[in-house]
């Protein structure tokens, strides 16, 4: 085989491997739960708040949720122990448009179901943007801050947001719903169905 053919084949092979690696990296990054590309929302569409500026938020009921220790987003931990039978968790991110739609439903759920402790887990490093979004929406439920996706990782959740997680009286995850809700009634019915089946 001529020397030019061998060199040409090696160059084509190296370029091909580089293209495949670039595509694989791009696909993996866009599917991350804390990636604005995963939600179709660009970061330019949301006003950026400095990570040092975390607006005040309600205190969290405990230092952990579903056995995962997380700091409280804009509030303090363990304001009062909860006597709720179930904890309902909304896993969300500030750049997620479906999260914006459904987060107010969790406030309504807390108001209508005192037997539930309803909290959020913000799955993104930008705590300031997360707290600001909740305040802009008028959402009152407390939320935890998860900079490293520890919550989703510990529970084996898929890499998407939003996800609704149902935690039982024993503090362990009973079920999860990887779906964006567009009505309060659908959210309430889905949670009731999961609790009855637990």
From TrEMBL:
Record's compositionally biased regions (Polar residues): 31-49
Pfam families reported in the protein's UniProt record: AhpC-TSA
Domain of life: Bacteria
Subcellular location(s) of the protein: Cell envelope
Entry-linked InterPro entries: AhpC/TSA, Thioredoxin-like_sf, Thioredoxin_CS, Thioredoxin_domain, Thioredoxin_ResA/DsbE_sf
GO BP terms: cytochrome complex assembly
Keywords: Cytochrome c-type biogenesis, Disulfide bond, Membrane, Redox-active center, Signal-anchor, Transmembrane, Transmembrane helix
SUPFAM superfamilies the UniProt entry points to: Thioredoxin-like
The protein's name in its UniProt record: Thioredoxin domain-containing protein
Organism: Corynebacterium vitaeruminis DSM 20294
């Amino acid at each position: 085989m001529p020397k030019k053919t061998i060199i040409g084949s090696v160059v084509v092979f190296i370029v091909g491997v580089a293209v495949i690696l670039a595509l694989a990296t791009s696909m993996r990054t866009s599917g991350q739960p804390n990636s604005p590309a995963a939600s179709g929302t660009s970061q330019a569409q949301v006003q950026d708040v400095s990570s040092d500026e975390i607006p005040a938020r309600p205190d969290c009921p405990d230092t952990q949720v579903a056995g995962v220790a997380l700091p409280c987003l804009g509030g303090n931990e363990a304001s009062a122990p909860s006597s709720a039978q179930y904890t309902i968790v909304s896993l969300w991110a500030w750049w997620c448009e479906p999260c914006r739609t459904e987060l107010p439903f969790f406030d309504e759920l807390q108001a209508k179901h005192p037997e539930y402790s309803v909290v959020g887990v913000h799955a993104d490093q930008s705590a300031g943007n997360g707290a600001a979004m909740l305040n802009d929406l008028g959402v009152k439920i407390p939320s935890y801050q998860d900079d490293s996706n520890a919550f989703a990782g510990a529970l084996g959740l898929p890499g998407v947001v939003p996800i609704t997680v149902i935690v039982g009286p024993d503090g362990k995850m009973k079920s999860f719903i990887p779906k964006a809700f567009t009505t309060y009634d659908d959210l309430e019915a889905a949670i009731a169905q999961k609790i009855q089946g637990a």
